TrEMBL record:
It comes from Actinomadura fulvescens. Residues 1-58 form the HTH lysR-type domain. This is LysR substrate-binding domain-containing protein. Keywords: DNA-binding, Transcription, Transcription regulation. Transmembrane segments: none annotated. InterPro entries: LysR_HTH_N (IPR000847), LysR_subst-bd (IPR005119), WH-like_DNA-bd_sf (IPR036388), WH_DNA-bd_sf (IPR036390). It comes from the Bacteria. SUPFAM superfamilies: Periplasmic binding protein-like II (SSF53850), Winged helix' DNA-binding domain (SSF46785). Belongs to the LysR transcriptional regulatory family.
């Protein structure tokens, strides 16, 4: 039994696919299948049910999985101890990002980190806030830039690095275009253009509308904030965006403050509050917290 076989077992389980597991591990799919078959022959039982559209663990696979994860965790822990004793910072870190954090100087931060720690490989992964939070908790991400509401996600430590108002954006001919401010209830019967469910900003909007006594009528859900502004410019509805995403289109749009209540979108650094963290991940978290100080606007 080899460690890579256990690593492949865990990856196939989490991805529910040999193909996706191979892509995640950066190896050829036949190699993953061959190693899993070899492990199954050694254990004398099939570990995966391959008969359906997705790959599922058999009862034997479910029994083996906790031991596979424990073995991989033990090896990672041994490497951490040795690296800390020798003062080495090397290995690999994975950073999660969201679309509208591009206003931050992430390339500059990563360039400084690479200059100090050239032996560390860095992977960027873009996903929705909800998926990123799950990946941080599971240890698949070392550091994430997440959009969030007022309550930090359970199991994570956070540092808010950007807080900004959420605004309504409409085309110049829209009935709301003459107004500088509106209450949230002014959007009760309007077609809204929003980020999709699972994003931090959408959660803020949905919670505020629920508190105001109505369900938002969302006509378009798109993960790219600038495209939301473009759809609003075409008169397809009211886009609800963080201010920074709307400012790039202010010449062709009307930005309207939303009051009663005022909503604030937040970008936060997030990392797992428990479990092993590699020296490389700790070094990157420390640099990010220093370079991107906490935003006091709450």
């Amino acid at each position: 039994m080899e460690l890579r076989q256990l690593e492949y077992l865990v990856a196939v389980t989490e991805e529910a696919s040999f193909t996706r597991a191979a892509a995640r591990l950066h190896v050829a799919q036949p190699g993953v299948s061959a190693q899993i078959r070899q492990l199954e022959r050694e254990l004398g039982q099939p570990l995966f049910d391959r008969s359906g559209r997705t790959v599922r663990l058999t009862e034997a696979g479910k029994a083996v999985l906790p031991y596979a994860r424990a073995a991989l965790s033990a090896v990672a822990g041994a490497r951490l101890v040795v690296d800390e004793l020798t003062g080495l910072v090397r290995g690999h870190v994975t950073v999660g990002v969201i679309e509208w954090m591009k206003i931050l100087d992430l390339p500059g931060l990563l360039a400084d980190f690479h200059r100090d720690h050239p032996q560390v490989e860095i992977t960027l992964s873009e996903s929705r806030a909800a998926d990123m939070i799950d990946s941080l908790r599971a240890g698949r991400l070392d550091l994430g830039f997440i959009s969030m509401g007022t309550t930090p996600p359970e199991g994570l430590e956070t540092q808010i690095i950007l807080a900004q108002d959420v605004v309504a954006v409409v085309a110049p001919g829209d009935p709301l275009a003459r107004r500088d401010t509106i209450p949230l209830t002014a959007l009760r019967d309007r077609a809204l253009i929003c980020l999709p469910k699972g994003t931090g900003l959408r959660a803020i909007i949905d919670e505020a509308c629920a508190a105001a006594g109505f369900t938002p009528g969302v006509s378009f859900e798109i993960g790219d904030p600038p495209m939301l502004a473009q759809l609003a410019a075409l008169g397809l509805g009211v886009a609800v965006l963080p201010r920074s995403a709307a400012l790039a289109y202010r010449d062709g749009l009307r930005l309207i403050e939303i009051t009663r209540p005022r909503m604030t979108g937040r970008i936060a650094l997030a990392w797992r509050s428990g479990g092993p963290t590699s020296p490389a991940a700790r070094a990157l978290i420390e640099l990010a917290r220093t370079r991107l100080p906490e935003d006091d606007q709450r």
